[in-house]
């Protein structure tokens, strides 16, 4: 018999601060030995949310295909939410396991899907997981809306160009960057296009928001990038974002913000 070991982390942060892929795999290998499987196969999905359908996760899809073709007779996950955090998807997967006689294991041991009590427990855990996601999403949305009402900036390190955050995380004008915003608007009034303006800012060696941030770098396709140039798309966003005229948009609603450009410009 072969045990399929499925591991998943939704983000790089989770792989560092949560249960890493390696840790999940090690626990699975220990279970394959403990429960007498002849061998095991590893399947992983890095950077995939548990709310995504299993057909859209390459690692889990490959595992399910091998279960359906009877190449794998058992499945290990550290916790059931590694498989799915959507109740409907969980029910579909459970049906597949029952119909194919697949043995299911987590860190607490074997889950007997034919046992009504364990089946109920599995359903409840799946429902609670789905409920927790919805509850967390609602809390985040409320917090973001409250921040907008209170004039606070988001949790990320970068605010809109021209702004920074005070000690209370409220959005305030960055005087140096505000002068650049005003310059961008002035050049636009003079008839300069966004690409011409971007080239002008680069020629004058005016730093972008990223270049002046504390991080000063970001990974692009796995490569650390430290030099950032003005792009016409960035200039366009500055020219079309109403925040610079004192109107901050959030979920279709308008909230006041410190104005850098006079209304009517």
Structure in words:
This protein has 265 residues and is of the alpha/beta class. It has helices spanning 12-17, 21-34, 58-68, 87-99, 116-149, 175-189, 194-203, 209-212, 232-240, and strands at 2-9, 39-46, 74-76, 103-106, 109-111, 163-165, 171-173, 218-220, 223-225, 247-250, 253-256. Strands 2-1-3-4-5 form a five-stranded mixed beta sheet, with helices on both faces. A two-stranded antiparallel sheet has the order 6-7. It has a two-stranded antiparallel sheet with strand order 8-9. Strand 4 (103-106) and strand 5 form a beta hairpin. Helix 7 (194-203) crosses helix 9 (232-240). The longest helix is centred in the middle third of the chain and has 34 residues, at 116-149. The termini are far apart. The model is unreliable at 127-131 (pLDDT under 50).
């Amino acid at each position: 018999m072969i045990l399929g070991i499925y591991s998943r982390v939704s983000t790089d942060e989770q792989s560092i601060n949560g249960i890493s892929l390696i840790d999940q795999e090690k626990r699975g290998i220990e279970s394959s030995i403990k429960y007498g499987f002849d061998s095991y196969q590893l399947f992983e999905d890095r950077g995939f949310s548990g709310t995504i359908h299993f057909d859209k996760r390459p690692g889990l899809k490959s595992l399910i295909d091998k279960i359906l073709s009877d190449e794998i007779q058992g499945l290990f996950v550290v916790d059931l939410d590694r498989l799915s955090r959507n109740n409907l998807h969980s029910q579909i997967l459970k049906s597949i396991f029952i119909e194919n006689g697949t043995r299911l294991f987590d860190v607490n041991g074997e889950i007997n899907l034919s046992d009504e009590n364990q089946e109920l427990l599995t359903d409840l855990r799946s429902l609670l997981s789905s409920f927790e996601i919805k509850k967390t999403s609602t809390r985040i949305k409320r917090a973001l809306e409250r921040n907008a009402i209170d004039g606070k900036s988001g949790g990320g390190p970068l605010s809109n160009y021209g702004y920074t955050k005070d000690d209370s995380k409220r959005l305030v004008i960055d005087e140096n960057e505000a002068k650049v915003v005003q310059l961008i608007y002035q050049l636009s009034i003079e008839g300069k296009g966004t690409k011409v303006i971007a080239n002008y800012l680069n020629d004058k060696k005016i730093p972008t928001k990223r270049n002046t941030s504390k991080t000063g770098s970001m990974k692009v396709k796995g490569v650390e990038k430290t030099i950032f140039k003005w792009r016409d798309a960035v200039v366009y966003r500055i020219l079309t974002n109403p925040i610079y005229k004192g109107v901050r948009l959030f979920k279709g609603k308008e909230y006041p913000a410190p104005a850098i450009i006079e209304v009517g410009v």
